[in-house]
UniProtKB/TrEMBL annotation:
Transport as UniProt keyword: no
Assigned GO CC terms: membrane
Entry's localization field: Membrane
Location of region: Disordered: 1-22
Name of the protein described by the UniProt record: Uncharacterized protein
Pfam entry (one): ST7
Source species taxonomy: Bacteria, Pseudomonadati, Pseudomonadota, Alphaproteobacteria, Emcibacterales
Amino acid sequence: MFGPLMPVSKNRRKNKTKNTKKPAIKVLQKKKLAADVSQDIPDRKFMEKMMAQITNAAFAPDPFAGDGLLEAPDHQDPLRQAQDMMYDAWEADTKRERIALARQALKISDLCADAYLLLAEEEAKDIIQARKYYEQAVDAGRQALGDALFEDAEGDFWLVLETRPFMRAKAALAQTLWDLGERQEAAEHVKHMLQLNPGDNQGMRTILKSWLFTLNDFAGVEELLVEYEEDSLAEWCYSKAFLMFRQSGAKSSGAIRVLKHAVETNHFVPDLLLGTKRMPKSLPPHYSIGSKEEAIIYVDQNRENWSATKGALQWLAENR
């Protein structure tokens, strides 16, 4: 799912005291993107492959440069070779080719998290087997990164290119655990992801918010809303209204006021939640603020909570 770039948390954690010896990592420069995404976005893994190739070229040894200040990466590193193979695997035409390349990548390095991730998505026969692959992916990613990086890069974790296979695996494992009913553990995985990367490039905070509502963890929802209080998306506006309804009841003037503001932010949401407009069979690949596509994505993630809460839909219909 692609949408506007997720705003960075206002309450960013201050940098901790760093180790004097830094791990050899590549950090990508932050870039501002337009909030309104109105055209197709290239596949993120393809973009990541391009960034890896550009970075490798930038650090490539120059026989005429002599000793430089920057240490060139080890292009013979097995994990680097395995990861490059996974970029090829994602672009392979057939499922058989993709699985074969993933297996080959694991022979080169058993710490290639993306290889386990692909096997979970392409080869697993059921959700139980997929879970095992996802767990292997998370473990491999953690070992590949090393403990020091988790401390040194906390706060800007996604900007370190090598962390992304681990973060992809962690997101997939969290969703699988949720689907299996291990919901508290699933939520803890996402909380850890947001601790590592509060900028939330993967959009995990919206998923966590919905899960916390399901778990009746209203304090957790409120903390999340405060952490990202500058977020003006319909997702956040309707969630604030829903939280106030759950906490204060249908007659709360404050809840009604917040709901009306949410409707002003995106007027497509009520009809989709109430069922007066049909949801599409598939989710849109991206959206812009205030659009029907944004409403579809919000309703897809949150209608179960609205429907399960007594009086919530009636309150919405009466006060929209």
